[in-house]
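In full, the data:

***
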Amino acid sequence: MNIGDTITGGSVFGPDGTEYSAPFTVPGNGFNTGSGGATLDSTDADDLSSSSVEAGLDQGLLDLQGCLTELNDLDKQDSWL
């Protein structure tokens, strides 16, 4: 669990062993799900938005295209020799 995650169902145990029931916002490190599990809204969800994933994939494709172009250029130079 991450700092800022909101527990919407179930419970969590704090670092000192205290059990906290939903609704609860994780205030720090060391929290684990309770014996019955927990449902949460994670702050990491924003990091995986479709637009950021697409932007990362697009950048990777551009990098790959650049490498392939350089390899093609090297191949052309070798054929001249």
Notes: The radius of gyration is 24 Å. The beta strands are 6-13, 19-21, 24-25, 32-41. The helical segments are 50-80.
